Amino acid sequence: MLETDKLTKKFKDVVAVNHVSIELKEGESVGLLGPNGAGKSTAISLISTLMKPSSGDVRLNGKSVLKNPDELRRVLGVVPQKIALYEDLSAYENLKFFGRLYGLSGKKLEERISYVLELVGLADRKNELVKNYSGGMQRRVNLAAAMMHEPKVLIMDEPTVGIDPQSRNHLLETIRKLNHEEGMTVLYTSHYIEEVEKLCDRVYIMDHGKVIANGTKEELKAILSEQETVLIEFDQNYPQLFEKLGQLDGIQQATTEEHSLKLIIPKGTRLLGTLFHEAERYDAQIINVNVQTPTLEDVFLRLTGRTLRD
């Protein structure tokens, strides 16, 4: 339904998006994962025709939209990373304003306002000024504004950043409903892998402006099918030990978090014995050892060499 073909954007000597090809089939939910600076937001600006590419193409149902972006804009809803609302207007007034920009009026406008307010759970607070809302409530109105014109494709750029757990869960359930029950096509970017795992059918992983892997969650996890993840919890932080363990032969990836060390190692190796021996040499107390099947986050770490929030 919506696809990009070798989409590229250069800013002087910096290539922010480098030959990115993404496709969204009608009715599916696609995740776009990447750390800060990976090029996700620039890619979304290009896909939504807010920015012109240096090269490449964006196509809707097989037809380029670069020369005639209005065709895509009529069916596209965009929820930007930053709140795009007028704080001194109420939720109702904001939605009325955006609805009229989309060409809605009269009964149809009022019906859409009522529908989207119910959808995001704010019908009973529609007359309050947006500046008095919590960050989570503002995010919900942000989504409601993008839904006013009944878009067929919804692009969401980090929609849950900095909000409370209740609003986050409400947003995720709303997006899931739109996709599963109403068949809306969704492109979803996030710093939170668990959100993408919950919402998305397929995932693209971006790093340094490029798509470095894509597929279903199962296909991506199969990248580490011959590896396993070992999570070792210590009684305290042992920087020298952690550095030494991460350099052992056979360790494919090592990351530390507070008192824990996460290692990706080949299946069937005898590395655990060596790990315990090294810990004993440093007089380090191990609290817990957990051997896990690799997760999507482990795949991301293996491909990029860093965690998603780095």
From TrEMBL:
GO terms for molecular function: ATP binding. The keyword Nucleotide-binding applies. Keywords: ATP-binding, Nucleotide-binding. Residues 2-233 form the ABC transporter domain. SMART domains: AAA. It is found in: Cell membrane. InterPro entries: AAA+_ATPase, ABC_transporter-like_ATP-bd, ABC_transporter-like_CS, DrrA, P-loop_NTPase. It comes from the Bacteria. Gene3D superfamilies: P-loop containing nucleotide triphosphate hydrolases. It is a peripheral membrane protein. Belongs to the ABC transporter superfamily. Drug exporter-1 (DrugE1) (TC 3.A.1.105) family. This is ATP-binding cassette domain-containing protein. It comes from Planococcus dechangensis.
